[in-house]
Recover the amino acids of this structure.
C-alpha cells in the first residue's frame, strides 16, 4: 500500500471505534498481527514472519495507546505516532512473546486479527492460559467493515478512476481483436496508472470460452472477432481499492448473450435495491440469485454475490446466501452476479457500493451495458 495520507486524528478515531465495538462484544484486548489490519490501525506496512510484529491494546476507553511490538530491524520503517501507539522494539536474542503478552490482562477475552501467524498465537495462548483468544473478524463481522465518511469518499474516488479505463474499453479505444489477453492486460495496466491509481492490484482479461472461468488468468490466447471479452480489474488510490467488471462483445451481440446480459443487469439492480441498512447481507445475495433463477440462469451463477472492499480487495463483509449479518451504514461491498456457460462464454457485472444512512450508493458510473466493439 502506498501514499498513506491518513491523519493522526483518523487513526485515533479508528482505534476508538474498534475498541468500542470490541467492548460491546465483551472483549478486553485486541491483538493485531501484520498485514492490512495493522496498516489500517498504525500506518505501518509490517508483516509477521518468524519474527513477530503485532499491535496490542486494551479495549478500555481512554486507556493507554496501543503497543506496537516490532523486530528492531523493522523499526526504521515505522512512523512514530505516540498519540496512537508506543513502539516496543525487540532484538533477535529477546523473547517477543513476553513483550507482547505484557500488555494483555491475565484473564478475559482477546480478539485476534486473521493475519497473526499461528506460531505466534499458539505461543501467546501458552503464555496467557487464562485468556480466551477469539477471531476478531468473526466476532465483529469484520474489523474494517464499517467505513467512515472519509473512507467511503476514498472508495468513490478510486472507483471513478477504474471507470475511466472501462469507459475507454467501451468506447473502443483499447484494441482487442488480434491481440493476446496478456497484451491487453499490459495496456490496461498502464491505463489504470494513467487514470490516477497509485498501484494496480489485479487485472482479469478473459476472452471467448475463457470468460466462463470467473478467476481466469490472462494468457496467450488471441482475441477473435465475435466473442465475449470480460474485464475485471482494480488498483489502489490513497490506500483504497477499486474492483469493477464489465464485458464487451467483439461483434454484434448474439441473442442468447443479449438475453442473459439483460437478466444479469436486472439481477444486479435487484441486489442493489436490497442493499439497505436493516436488511441482511444474505438478502442481497438472495435478490440476485432469485432474479437469475427466475430467468433460468440460477445453476450458472456459481459464486457469492459480493465481498467487502476497502484497504483490501476482498474483506468482510461477504455477501453470501448464508451471511445473516445486518447491513449497516458504512458497509462497502461489491455486487457482482455472473452467468458462466462452460465452453461458450461467461459474463459478470460488478460495481462497488457504499451504504449510506438512506441506502446504497454506487462507486461506479460506467454504463451497465454489454457494448459491441470492433
Ligand atoms: Zn473475485
Ligand atoms: Zn472484480
Ligand atoms: Zn470483486
Amino acid at each position: 500500500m502506498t501514499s498513506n495520507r491518513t491523519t493522526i486524528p483518523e487513526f485515533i478515531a479508528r482505534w476508538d471505534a474498534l475498541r468500542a465495538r470490541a467492548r460491546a462484544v465483551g472483549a478486553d484486548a485486541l491483538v493485531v498481527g501484520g498485514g492490512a489490519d495493522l496498516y489500517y490501525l498504525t500506518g505501518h506496512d509490517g508483516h509477521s514472519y518468524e519474527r513477530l510484529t503485532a499491535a496490542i491494546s486494551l479495549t478500555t476507553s481512554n486507556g493507554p495507546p496501543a503497543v506496537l511490538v516490532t523486530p528492531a530491524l523493522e523499526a526504521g520503517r515505522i512512523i512514530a505516532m505516540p498519540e496512537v501507539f508506543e513502539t516496543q522494539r525487540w532484538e533477535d536474542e529477546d523473547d517477543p512473546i513476553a513483550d507482547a503478552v505484557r500488555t494483555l490482562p491475565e484473564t478475559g477475552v482477546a480478539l485476534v486479527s486473521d493475519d497473526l501467524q499461528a506460531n505466534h498465537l499458539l505461543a501467546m495462548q501458552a503464555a496467557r492460559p487464562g485468556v480466551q483468544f477469539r477471531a476478531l473478524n468473526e466476532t465483529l463481522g469484520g474489523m474494517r467493515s464499517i467505513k467512515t465518511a472519509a473512507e467511503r469518499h476514498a472508495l468513490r474516488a478510486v472507483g471513478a478512476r477504474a471507470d475511466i479505463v472501462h469507459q475507454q474499453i467501451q468506447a473502443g479505444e483499447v484494441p482487442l481483436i488480434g491481440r493476446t489477453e496478456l497484451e491487453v492486460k499490459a495496456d490496461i495496466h498502464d491505463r489504470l496508472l494513467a487514470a490516477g491509481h497509485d498501484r494496480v492490484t489485479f487485472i482479469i482479461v478473459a476472452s471467448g470460452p475463457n470468460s466462463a472461468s470467473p478467476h481466469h488468468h490472462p494468457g496467450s490466447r488471441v482475441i477473435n472477432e465475435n466473442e465475449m471479452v470480460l474485464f475485471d480489474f482494480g488498483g489502489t488510490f490513497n490506500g483504497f481499492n477499486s474492483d469493477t467488471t464489465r464485458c464487451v462483445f467483439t461483434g454484434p451481440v448474439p441473442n442468447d448473450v443479449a438475453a442473459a446480459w439483460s437478466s444479469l443487469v436486472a439481477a444486479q439492480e435487484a441486489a442493489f435495491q436490497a442493499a439497505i441498512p436493516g436488511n441482511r447481507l444474505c438478502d442481497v445475495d438472495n435478490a440476485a440469485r432469485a432474479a437469475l433463477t427466475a430467468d433460468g440462469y440460477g445453476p450458472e451463477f456459481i459464486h457469492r454475490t459480493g465481498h467487502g472492499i476497502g484497504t483490501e480487495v476482498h474483506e468482510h463483509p461477504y455477501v453470501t446466501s448464508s451471511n445473516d449479518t445486518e447491513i449497516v451504514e458504512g458497509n462497502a461491498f461489491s455486487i457482482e452476479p455472473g452467468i458462466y456457460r462452460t465452453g461458450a462464454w461467461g459474463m459478470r457485472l460488478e460495481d462497488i457500493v457504499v451504504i449510506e444512512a438512506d441506502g446504497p450508493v454506487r462507486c461506479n458510473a460506467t454504463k451497465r451495458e454489454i457494448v459491441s466493439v470492433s
